[in-house]
Structure formats: C-alpha cells, structure tokens
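Complex 801.
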Amino acid sequence: MTDVTDSAWLVEETGFGPEGFDRARANYHETIFTVGNGRLGTRGSLEEGHLGQLSGTFLGGVYDGHEVPVIDLVNVPDWLDTAVYVDGVRLDVDTCTVVEHRRVLDLRDGVLTRSTLFEDADGRRTRLETERCASMADRRICALRLTVTPENHDGQIVVETGIDGDRRNLEALPVYPAGTVFDVRTRWEKWALAKHMEQTARSAADTLYLQMRTLDTGVELGFLASTTFATPPVHRAAQQRSERVTERTVHGGAPVRMEKLVAICTSRDPDASGPLPDRCRSALAEQEGFGSAGFDGAGFGSAGFDGAGFDGAGFDGVVAASRAVWEQLWDACACEVVGDERFTRALRFGLYHLLITANPDDPTVNIGAKSLSGEGYRGHVFWDTEIFMLPFFILTQPDTARALLRYRHHTLDGARANSREYGTGGARYAWESADTGREECPQFTPDGANRFWTREEEVHVSADVAYGIFRYVEATGDTAFLHDYGAEVLFETSRFWVDRVAASPAGGYELRQVMGPDEFHSHIDNNAFTNRLAQWHLTRTVALYDELRDRHPDVLAAVATTIGLKPDERDRWQAVAEGIVGPRTVAGVIEQFTGYFDRDDIPITEWDDNDMPRYPKGYHHFNCETTKLLKQPDVVMLNYLLPDEFSAEVKKANFEYYEKRTLHKSSLSPSIHAIIGMEVGDTTRAVQYFERSVLVDLADNQGNTAEGMHIASAGGTWQILVNGFGGLRVLGGRLSFTPWLPGDWQGIRFRLRWRGRPVHVSVDHGHVELLLGGDAGGTEGVLVGGREVTLTAGEPVRVAR
Ligand code: BGC
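Predicted structure with beta-D-glucopyranose bound:
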C-alpha cells in the first residue's frame, strides 16, 4: 500500500456517504489517474466499470481508420475487466451504495491504489481494494491486485476477470441543439462509435488469451492474462464469448486476494518476431516467475506454463522492478517549489504524465495531443511535441527526446507524400500526424459546420521539427543523430520551403496563404512566426550542409545519395533564407502578418473565474478573422523561441501589445505568456498564467480534462519552472540563468542534463546554487544573471543573485 507520508507525490480522490463516488467527475478522474509506461496508457476507470465511464487503454502507434473519416488511436482491449459479486449482487457504483471511496495515485512509482466500501440493498458491506500499474521495467506488462473483504457478512464471493476486446472509439456526437446537457450516465452513448478491431484468436484455459487485429492497419494485438489467488477458489470456470475471455472463480472464504498479470505484445513492436501468443507467454515468464510468492502455488496461472514454476515476486515484484526505473526517471527530472506542496505536486503530476506517454525504446511513435490518456484529438501528433514537450525530454531524458525525433525520420516518407500532394517537393510534416506521417487533420468540425484551415495552412510545423532537432543536438552534442537521421529530415524540409515560397513583387520571397500558431487567422501572408522560423531553419541547414561538406564529406555524400541532393540546392536554401521578407515593425512591435495592424481592435473586457479572458460579446472561435484578437501567442512565441535575436525592449513592446489581445483559447498558450511575462517584468500576469498552466488538468480549468490530459501544457509548465522562474535560456550555446521568484516562495529546485552531465539548480531569494555532475574534472561555463561562472564537476557553486 502506498506510503502516504509525502503528499506532494500523491494525487487523491476521496468521497464518503451517498455521493462517495462523484459520478459527475468520474471521467475527469479517469484521465488524471491514467497509469502507463510510455508504450501504453490505461485510463483510471473503475475495474468493474460504471454507467457513464469513458474507459480505455491506448498503445502508442496503434491507429486505425476503418470506416471513419479521420484515423483514430485505437481503444484496445481492456486488460482490467474485473467484476466482483457478493451473493450474486454485483459490486459496482450503479448497484450498491458507496459508503467510502478513495483512490491515490503515487507519482513516484505510478501505482494507482483504490479502496471502495460498498453496501448492497440487504446491508452487506464489502470492501474492494485494488492496486494497478503498467510496468516501466518491462513495457509489455500490466498488473492488478485485488482484495475483497466482507465487513459484516459471510456471503459468497465470486470474481470474474478477463480481457475484453469488444471496444469502440468515440466517433462523432450527433448534432443536438446548442447547450444540450446529457445525463452523465448516458452522455457517451449518444456518440456514433467506431469499431477498429476484430478477433483473430482466443483461448481460455489455465490462462486467458485474446488476440485482436485492427481492421484497416492490420496490427495484431495479443493480450495474455494469468491470475493467482492467495487461497485457492472452490470452483473455477473459464468463459469465452466473441471478443472476450474471462474466468469466473467462486470463493469459499474471505478475504479474497487475486493478482492478475497481463502481457501485451503487438505485431508492430520494434523487435517483433515469433508468434504473438509465444511472445506474450515469454513476457509473463520473464516476470521473475509470476504466480505465487506468498500464495503457495495456489494459482491457476502457472498451469498453462507446464508447471514451469512461476514462483517469483508476483505483483510486488512487478512494482519493485518498475519502481527502480521510476526512481531513475525522477532522479533525472526532480523538481520542487520549495515549501509549496500544491505547486510541487501539480508540477510532478504533469511530469508523471509526460513520463508515462513517451517511449524511449520505440522510435516509430510520438506523443498525441492528449497523450495516451484519452481519445481527444484521436491521438494525433502536433507541433506540441517539438515546441512544448521536447524541451523537457531534451534537458532531462535525452534518450526519449532522440526517440521522439526519430519518429520524424521514421515518418519522412509520409511527409514527402504530403508535400507532393500540395505541389511542392521535399518533405512537409503533417499538421496532424499518426502512424505514417501522412496528413490526418480533419477539414471540418465534427458537426460539419465549420471549416478548419490548419491542415492546409499551418505549415510552420516543418520548421518546428527542425527547431527541435537543432535544440536537441545543441543540448546533447549527439552529432550521430544529426548524421544518421537529422540531416536527411532537415534537407528534405528545406526543399519544401524553397518550393513553398513565392517571389515577392518587391523582391525576395514571401510565404502566402498560411496560418501561424494563432489559429484565429487563416489565409494570411507572411506570418512573422512562420517566416522567421522557416528562415532560421534554412539558415541553420545551410550551416549544417557546410559543416558536413567540410568535416564529414562521407556523411554528406551518403545523405545526398539517399535523397538525390543536387549541388546547387544548398545555394537555393541560402538564397531563400536571405530573401524571406521580414515583418513590418512599428515602435518595436512586430506585425503578426501582413495587414494585421489594420484589423479591428476589439477590447477584451471580461475574465473568467480562472482569471483568463472571455471572448468579447458576439465573438467565437470562427469569427475572429477580421479582428486583432489572438487565440494564442504568435509573435510572443517567436520572441521566446529565438531568445538571442530580440532585444529586451522588443520583447517588452510585443508582450505588452499582444498580451492585451490574446484570449488563450489553447491550453498551450498561458505557459509562453508566463515565461515572457517574467522576462519583461509583468510578473503579476506571469504568475497568473503559471497557475492557469500548472493546474490545467488537476483543477480541470479548461473543463475538458475528461477527454484526456493537456499534455503539451504539462511540457509548457515545466518550461515555466525552468525557463520562467529559473530564467534559463541557451545563449550562444551556453546555459544562462536569470531567475525570478514570487515574494512568497522560498525557492525552486530542478535538475537538467546538459551535454551528458547532470546539472542541479537551486534558487532562493538570495542565491543560485549550481552543481555539475558527471566525471570528475569536467567543467562547464554558464551565465548567472549575466555573469560568467565556471562549474566544475562535483563542486557546488553558490552565486548571489
Ligand atoms: C492549438 C494548437 C495545438 C492543438 C493540439 C489547438 O487548440 O491551437 O496549437 O497544436 O490544439 O494541442
């Protein structure tokens, strides 16, 4: 059971009495209590389900588009699938009264613990306790432990547990009058549902095996479950029906204690070889002999394995191995607002969700906009990865950052095909990417009423990918990545830009018909963000080309052969980089796009309970085109991404101008305003934006956490800690810290990894303390408040602020 002594690591749900289970917030809890391991995520639904549940397990990279207009991240078989009966009465929140209900997610090891006391109509009280986790040590393994304890009766206990493959994805909500409110018990039933899997194999003997195949993409998914009981059941029957396998055990005494271990293997796993059932079996067998410790071999699990003696550590063993990996993960990214438990927990909560959604071992997957915690955005990958989440991984978990960037290389063919479709060459990354890299962005809102232009016009994503690659290499020194994968991506995407630009009548090049990060304005020309990032991308790529030509001609030759690069292409990249038109600037304010300054200035006059702007009366997402209102930062974002290219005065002028006009209708938005707000001295607003960002999911302040985590916001929040309060910028290739702390904070602490060495940072009101780790003798020159400081490995340095 979870050690509850350090509540800054614990996220809790507690309820007593008739409302012990808060049904209205159940879907929210399902999201925040997602357990996962980077390869898969399982929402925090009750094991036995409830009316109105939105349950799901999602495996990175498993998509399917069968008979749906937009490809989905598949809601794969449910490995929890467990129900308990007491004298024939099902223990669930729909049948029984909930006397007490408590769940705790321990962020340290990703174990979700539950204790629910049910009372049935005859007054029988039974406590149901569970613990579950997805192993970080072996990403194929999930584990559940269940204990059933009668409190005032000796009724007969029956447990049913199995694998349920009869799953659907939400497809579309039919059009109902605006403002229609659905009962929480039935709200998801109104949706059209999409079926993405069919059963290909099933067996229910001593172990339970279910194999499903995705209908269009043909991915085989194998789920093998093995259970053990502390005391042997008096009766056991395996049950099979279409797309579901279960076992039913009848118990002669109480308490009943079950451990269930599930191995999940798929035909798309990077190292896949051999029949899936065999792979699942060996995955279970590798769990140090699951099946019995303390259980006296009472389980059924081992029989299917020819009595091979799975007498190992069971559930506790899985958790112990997983915890050891978690310890390493946390060691690399430990962070804290000293003395403030609420913010510390919220920061760690965001990092927990980042850690359970990124897989360093699979370079063919990436992170969807709602992570693996829900179906929102159908699991599609956006610029959110490179701009919002990647900085966290680059600076704390560089192997994961590398894998995330390798996904862009893996999907390069898809990006090439996207570019061809739009009449350009090279590679153009999809605004919404899934398994192949082809563009998956829908053109209309689900009700068909409004057209989105992001698919066609939000082309900045290709420059964002380039940005991520260069930042990764700068922080890690991983030139091998650049040579093996990065250069090809950068050259191909540079080819896209030179075809995408148009000659300007005034000379130079323009980028017309685009949309910047601010999605209120479509069909615009010369978006300051897009033009500048495309230019930066081309300039850096030319420099890379020259470096390879001069120092690694063999690497250049290999890439050139692969992509048929011609000698004059480099000069064309340079010509376009030098010729891209710059934005109009008035009194330091950079015009967001050509003609922006002429649009209607509609004041923002109302703020919501979170102190965030409301749409001015009469305005909504689809009619802000003619105004200066912004959905999210665009120029301010640019100021942040290229810190050494804009003066302090320019940053201040742009923040002051655009902040008044930004509605923050994306959860990505507040983090950027928090960071730049601190830099330019608007610390009051900055702290408000921090609170909005750090609590976005825990406080559900967007109102839609039920559909999945705002995972980019978690990455943005980490950047507020490190780049905002910590004041970190990389200037001229060096770490530079100019911290700022709110008066009522004692301090902050965080850890980074820079060029292979850990850097521990601690800030209070008087000092910055830095400790460089790694091999003795290593040094690193950094800036603190603009002053040069040399760090030597193992020697803490304390600098007055
Ligand atoms: C934002 C985009 C973001 C997407 C997915 C949209 O609302 O405007 O910037 O990429 O959500 O998170």
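Residues 528-551 form the longest helix (24 residues).
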